[in-house]
Amino acid sequence: MGIITVGREFGSGGRELGKRLADALNYAYYDQEIIDEIVKNMQLSHKYVENILHEGVMPSFSYRFGNTFYTPYPVVQGTVDVLVEQQKVIKEIAQKGNCIIVGKSANVILKDLKTLDLFVYADLSSKIKRCQERAPEGENFSEKELKKRIKQIDARRSRFQEALTDLKWGAKEGYHLCINTSGFEIKALIPFIAEYATRWFDLK
Amino acid sequence: MGIITVGREFGSGGRELGKRLADALNYAYYDQEIIDEIVKNMQLSHKYVENILHEGVMPSFSYRFGNTFYTPYPVVQGTVDVLVEQQKVIKEIAQKGNCIIVGKSANVILKDLKTLDLFVYADLSSKIKRCQERAPEGENFSEKELKKRIKQIDARRSRFQEALTDLKWGAKEGYHLCINTSGFEIKALIPFIAEYATRWFDLK
């Protein structure tokens, strides 16, 4: 059985790579689907879970000062609960069969399985260009804003991983293959990665 | 024309990978040959050049104190001369046709060409195991000594690169593909890397 995890820098095309690779190998693909599952299992709002996992911001508990002594416990606990559920969901997915899981430090969460762990990265100008080309209609970040956004999102990913392990997010030591997509069409990279993955699972 | 550079951690099997890849692709292979060329061009002893490039130690100039005021100039100049000649040799090799160059920060030296830059790495226990298996007869380093040796050699490689560029040796940003060989027979990795290289040069 083959499980491929794909870590990626924001804007590097890792998500597209994961999706296309899943198509090429006929593997199940999990990304957003993991959030849907958490939402269902925990009976929380989609926005609440997404806020925690995608934005790294605290959900809308009201912070009260003055008369009420403030304790951050519910906020912290809410975050921890979602992270614990995410691990559970990812471990369940891994039991189901061949699949590709994008992001969420799945390489760390599934470290006891023989997963193939990829990391996708690119130079900053390629990432900015990619974000600009793929911007949804109406979104119009300046280059400076995009730089900031890329930095923030990757910092959050890195921070989440830190909660799980000493292994640094994006450090090559945590992956089997690190792929620089600068100047590439993701599509063009798929055949050889598919070939690698197939051989990898044959060997393991 | 295809030029592939292979950076590698000591003990990761990068040299074997480079050699086997050269055979698979029918490319010329350069590693030790670069030292031979420097020796010939500069009319220096093999040992002198090797000391500088492989061991990172200063050659046998006598250090005199006492009456004579010591200046390190000749030592420094000797090192710089060899490094400059090495760059020249590598640039000449790159003009000759399809080839694989192992080590020597060739990715940095040839940064203006469309080289394919690989980096080969492994976890420490795999590297130690590899060193033990490949030790020449009579060499019998303890695990502790091997750890130290691996650290020293990689630190020297890193230091040499620092003299050329801000790009950190072994940091994935300086390469197109980083390959973790832990637990692999190098031989088994060759077909897919050859496939990747062929596609890469087709696309460029």
Would you mind describing this structure in some detail?
The structure is a homodimer. By secondary structure, chain A is α/β, with parallel strands linked by helices. Chain A contains eight helices and five strands; from the N terminus they run βαβαααβαβααβα. In chain A, strands 2-3-1-4-5 form a five-stranded parallel beta sheet, sandwiched between helices. In chain A, helix 1 (about 15-25) packs across helix 8 and helix 2 crosses helix 4 (about 75-95). The model of chain A is unreliable at about 60-70 (pLDDT under 50). The interface of A and B includes residues 178 and 191 of A.
Q: Order of strands in the sheet with the most strands of chain A?
A: 2-3-1-4-5
Strand content of chain A: 5-15%
Structural class computed from helices and strand pairing of chain A: alpha/beta
Largest interface: A-B, 20 and 20 residues
Instruction: Report the radius of gyration of chain A as a whole number of Å.
Output: 18 Å
Characteristic terms for this protein:
homodimer, 204 residues, alpha/beta, five-stranded parallel sheet, 8 helices, globular
Question: What would a concise description of this structure say?
Answer:
Two copies of one chain form a homodimer. Chain A is α/β, with parallel strands linked by helices and about 200 residues long.
